Amino acid sequence: MPTSSRAATPSPDTTPEPASPGRRADVCDAPRLPGAPCPTSGEPPASPPPRQPDGLCCGATGLDVTELQLRLRWIDFYQGTADGIYDQQLTDSVAAYQRSRGVTSDLPGQYGPVTRTVLQREVPDVVSD
Question: Which of 39, 45, 59, 78 would bridge with 93, disulfide CB 3.0–4.6 Å?
Answer without folding.
Answer: 78
